[in-house]
């Protein structure tokens, strides 16, 4: 089988369906590894990885760090809040200083769109985008697609609705690219003000009525409203948002089928999703988190193989 086609993981847009399938096959192996009593393999003993987080994170940061440690890589962690970025250091200077400590792979979350692409052109290391502003979050999309495949057996032909703040969501865009490459049909649903005007040009349907969207779908991926990225009001009140777009038991009970409920986290319980739905058997939210470690082990392993074979 051919190797991973890219030197970096900057976005799902840049990789092929074959790349995604290779990551899934590799993740299957690592999922088995992390469920063993001894959860560690020596594969990356000669690889050093820097996790650079210029924006807050719980799941992605911990998941990458655990994936790297399960592969026996050396790991250094950087958080912008506690760094010399606060003293005016540029991104390239920060990263080149870290790279001079002989780092092979950089995992970076950054608030600016395209930060990973920019870095990949200016520094000598493999870059994994852990979320760049409102643009892409490729490892989240890979773990989401992997979790859907695990739950439903396949992705091709499945109807998947992404609900909520599509405008500010890097998860939405990466999910659209990944799931379309794997043959799913995608719709988005949310307030019209939170749906990008160009979305239909990506081959994505728009449904403004949440009950119709739920009736159509096999899977609902529910997103948080990203108040921190809003400088104007996009809807009158959180209460109205919850009434019109919140996923609750009454809405799911009105369907003549069980759909799969996903959420990338962090959840705002009682806003975009009620606790009884988030904690129900239909929800695979914690499976997504578990699969995130295997998916991140897979992508790191595939990039490290390239480095060793270069
Ligand atoms: N899903 C996700 O990216 O969560 P964090 O912001 O906690 O990393």
Characterise this structure.
The protein folds into two domains: 12-136 and 289-309, 3-Layer(aba) Sandwich (Rossmann fold), CATH 3.40.50.1370; 138-286, 3-Layer(aba) Sandwich (Rossmann fold), CATH 3.40.50.1370. The chain is 40% helix and 14% strand. It has helices spanning 17-34, 59-70, 91-99, 115-122, 138-152, 170-181, 210-216, 238-245, 249-253, 275-278, 285-309; strands at residues 48-53, 74-79, 105-110, 126-132, 159-163, 185-189, 205-206, 219-222, 260-262. It is globular, with a radius of gyration of 19 Å. Bound molecules: phosphoric acid mono(formamide)ester (CP). The site of phosphoric acid mono(formamide)ester has 10 residues, from helix 2.
Summarize the structure.
The protein is built from eleven helices and nine strands. The protein has helices at residues 17-34, 59-70, 91-99, 115-122, 138-152, 170-181, 210-216, 238-245, 249-253, 275-278, 285-309, and strands at 48-53, 74-79, 105-110, 126-132, 159-163, 185-189, 205-206, 219-222, 260-262. Helix 5 (138-152) crosses helix 11.
Produce the secondary structure layout:
Blueprint: H1 17-34, E1 48-53, H2 59-70, E2 74-79, H3 91-99, E3 105-110, H4 115-122, E4 126-132, H5 138-152, E5 159-163, H6 170-181, E6 185-189, E7 205-206, H7 210-216, E8 219-222, H8 238-245, H9 249-253, E9 260-262, H10 275-278, H11 285-309
Parallel strand pairs: 1-2, 1-3, 3-4, 5-6, 5-8, 6-7, 8-9
The protein binds phosphoric acid mono(formamide)ester.
Identify the bound ligands: phosphoric acid mono(formamide)ester
Task: Output the CATH topology of the largest domain.
Answer: Rossmann fold
Q: Alpha-carbon distance between the termini?
A: 18 Å
How many domains comprise the coordinates? 2
State which percent range the strand residues make up.
5-15%
The counted number of beta strands is: 9
What best-fitting shape do the alpha-carbon axes yield? globular
Reading the helices and strands in chain order gives HEHEHEHEHEHEEHEHHEHH
Instruction: Tell me the radius of gyration.
Output: 19 Å
CATH homologous superfamily identity of the largest domain: Aspartate/ornithine carbamoyltransferase
Can you count the helices? 11
Q: Segments where pLDDT lies below 50 for 5+ residues? A: none
Biggest sheet details: 5 strands, parallel
In the CATH hierarchy, what is the class of the largest domain?
Alpha Beta
CATH hierarchy: architecture of the largest domain: 3-Layer(aba) Sandwich
Helical amount among residues, as a percent range? 25-40%
What structural class do you assign from the helix and strand content? alpha/beta
């Amino acid at each position: 089988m051919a190797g991973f086609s890219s030197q970096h993981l900057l976005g799902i847009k840049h990789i092929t369906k074959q790349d995604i399938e290779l990551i899934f096959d590799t993740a299957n192996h690592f999922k088995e590894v992390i469920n063993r009593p001894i959860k560690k393999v020596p594969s990356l003993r000669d690889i050093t990885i820097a996790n650079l987080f210029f924006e807050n994170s719980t799941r992605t940061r911990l998941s990458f760090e655990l994936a790297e440690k399960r592969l026996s890589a050396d790991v250094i962690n950087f958080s912008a809040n506690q760094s010399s970025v606060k003293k005016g250091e540029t991104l390239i200077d920060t990263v080149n200083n870290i790279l001079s400590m002989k780092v092979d792979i950089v995992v970076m979350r950054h608030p600016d769109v395209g930060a990973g692409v920019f870095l990949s052109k200016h520094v000598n290391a493999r870059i994994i985008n852990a979320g760049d502003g409102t643009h892409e979050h490729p490892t989240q999309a890979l773990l989401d697609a992997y979790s859907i495949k695990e739950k439903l057996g396949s992705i091709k032909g499945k109807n998947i609705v992404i609900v909520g703040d599509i405008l500010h969501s890097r998860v939405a865009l990466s999910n659209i690219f990944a799931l379309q490459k794997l043959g799913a049909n995608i719709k988005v649903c949310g307030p019209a003000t939170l749906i990008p005007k160009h979305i239909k040009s990506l081959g994505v349907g728009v449904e403004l009525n949440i009950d119709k969207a739920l009736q159509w779908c096999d899977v609902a991926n529910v997103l948080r409203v990203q108040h921190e990225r809003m400088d104007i009001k996009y809807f009158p009140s959180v209460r109205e948002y919850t009434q019109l777009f919140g996923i609750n038991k009454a809405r799911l009970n009105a369907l003549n089928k069980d759909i799969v409920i996903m959420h990338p986290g962090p959840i705002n319980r009682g806003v975009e999703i009620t606790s009884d739905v988030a904690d129900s058997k239909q929800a695979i939210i914690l499976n997504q988190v578990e699969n995130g470690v295997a998916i991140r082990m897979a992508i790191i392993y595939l990039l490290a193989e390239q480095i060793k074979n270069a």
